[in-house]
Amino acid sequence: MVGTGKKREKKKSLMEILRSDVSLATVKDLFTYEIPLPYSGAMVEKARAAIQDEKLSEEELHQLVAEFERQSDLISRVLTDRGVIKEEDLSRIAEEKEKSGLPFLQVLVSLKIVSPDQMSDLAQDLRRAIEAEEAGTRLEDCLIRKNLVKEEALRKAKELARTERISLEQALLRADAVSFEQLGKVMADEFGIKPISVEKEKIDRSVVNLVPDNIMKDFQLVPVRREGKKLVLAMANPLDVKALDKVRMVTGLDPIPRFAHPDAVEKAHKHFILEITTGGRTGSTGASTKQLEELVSSESTVKLVNNIIEGAVNSRATDIHLEPQEDNLRVRYRVDGMLYDLMRIPGDQAPATVSRIKVLAHMDITERRRPQDGHVTVKTGRREINLRASTLPTHLGEKIVLRVIQDSSIVRGLPQLGLSHDEITLIKEMIARPHGMFLVTGPMGSGKTTTLYAALGEVNTPNRNIVTIEDPIE
What we know:
It contains 20 helices and 9 strands. The chain is of the alpha+beta class. It folds into 4 domains: 14-135, no CATH class; 193-272, GMP Synthetase, Chain A, domain 3, CATH 3.30.300.160; 289-408, 2-Layer Sandwich (Beta-Lactamase), CATH 3.30.450; 411-459, no CATH class.
């Protein structure tokens, strides 16, 4: 029986955190959530003591402890299946947890097992795995239930998937544990995902060009046709929701997954994806200026940069960040104040990508040791997109930030700012004065530029000469 004493403030459950809208608060909740480690006796005892404080019955106590252990085992399985942690890491993590008192995910970061920028992807993986477990819709469960794969064969396939960093579908096919036809039938019956024969599809290159080469390679997919606002994808792993999210973000279209044989997808990649090499890593200058000038105008580089910019527009991003890493160039979008990983450009393609953006922004591609500012105007369909570009040299290479300024998003009049009648009257009175200063301040994305555009529109008459002093120029 539950006591009648003062109730504690109820904490959010893990699923409540994972199912909430992505925000800084969500990331904080996830980061500080106490995820229990499996086989950690001390953690189980702590949970048991906390439960007993609520004066639960013996039966309720056993049920909750069993649920506690089941969830911790599931989380461990998700992390090990995805190669985030290894079995031998568990004891080290448990020791660090007991010693530091930090929550589980903070321990992963402090031990450098997980980087902070992987948190959002990790949250999505945990959410999908828990929901699939509760609904009984995991692929391995379906295969076992239909007697298509034995437990031992499945275990070996999962180990192969971990070591080779491939999907479970690819591992099952590579190990001959199940045929493509059998796997395709399971996909269709259990998940509503039909198989597709890439060889029989007449794929238009213009459709392929909608998705960056790196996303196609990283997620083993290829666009096969467009149907209005939908984009049909042949995928080696059609259950990869992360891949669908990336395609949706970049194209602005609704992706429709179809299950394709990995070999067929790889063959399509060899036909459609243009490889570029510069003979150097991200931060190197192995390619000569002449080579870079040739590479920046190559079809693959032009397509990649165009896809990155169009993807930012489609996803309503305010900024595009291209950040050099040890062996790649990380591309991130800022959407509603949050940064999201888009892709990782291999190190040998990074110099051409950076140089292409510098050429568009009328910067000096031979100057890599000092910051530069520039401006890019790109037409996508009927829209004209303006980008403010800035570079910053680092020891790994040049970092580039592109600020997206869409003319369509600029409010043309004060009445459209959402201010009250009295506030608009006051502003009009202030900007009509022949001298003085009118300050507009606020954080990024708060509407400073929009407000200034609207104010300039009010005073812009044929009998006035207006000059704006901007650094950088927007």
